[in-house]
Amino acid sequence: DVKVTQSSRYLVKRTGEKVFLECVQDMDHENMFWYRQDPGLGLRLIYFSYDVKMKEKGDIPEGYSVSREKKERFSLILESASTNQTSMYLCASRMGNVLYGYTFGSGTRLTVV
Amino acid sequence: QKEVEQNSGPLSVPEGAIASLNCTYSDRGSQSFFWYRQYSGKSPELIMSIYSNGDKEDGRFTAQLNKASQYVSLLIRDSQPSDSATYLCAVVFSGGYNKLIFGAGTRLAVHP
Question: Could you tell me if B95 lies within 8 Å of chain A, comparing CB atoms?
């Protein structure tokens, strides 16, 4: 089975801190995605990457950046954390074929205080 | 506007009944459709995929697709309390990097 691992399950950070969320997948998937999920708003796409060193903005990229230096790792960076970035962050990966669904990591619940 | 619509629920069914979850989508050119189950506080888990019109069965789950009506559904037979979760419908829209577009989800509650 594909495994998508997110480095932290729970994280508490202070306003203004730079925050790194790490995601690693072990099945050589081309595509990787970062979502946030908030009650009543569903899954919202922040950024995605279709290959190493490639990145594309999703629906809500403001305040975030990403890095994909290696195929297996996709990092989400909060440049200056704010309280409205308190959320559940979900990483997902997929083979480069639309017949496959995404496999999600277990999520990181980030609280910014 | 690319949209996937689901009734938010909650859909409440008694144990042993059939639960029927519905989803409509806006892109007539969509080709791939998925159902995810998400327990409270957990991440979504892929349970079904369907690509052709008709029914696809996997254990107690049946996915149904009608591309002409732009409608996809999930039936859960012999519902169990452990099926209580939020079910997300996801569609690959044509164009635009073939991203999955998720519905907001339907909350299912199976009561003993």
Answer: no
| Contact between A106 and B32 using a beta-carbon 8 Å cutoff | no
Of B32, B42, B105, Cβ closest to residue A98 = B32
Asked if pLDDT for residue B70 goes beyond 90, the answer is yes
Compute φ and ψ for A69, nearest 5 degrees: -90, -25
Residues A8, B93: Cα–Cα separation, whole Å: 32
- Over the stretch A69-86, which tens digit does the pLDDT of each residue have? 999 999 999 999 999 999
Closest Cβ opposite residue B99 in set A41, A45, A105 = A45
Instruction: Please list, in sequence order, all residues whose beta carbon lies within 8 angstroms of the beta carbon of residue B74, skipping any fewer than 6 positions away.
Output: B20, B21, B23, B35, B48, B61, B62, B63, B64, B87, B89
Cis peptide before B14 (omega within 30 of 0): no
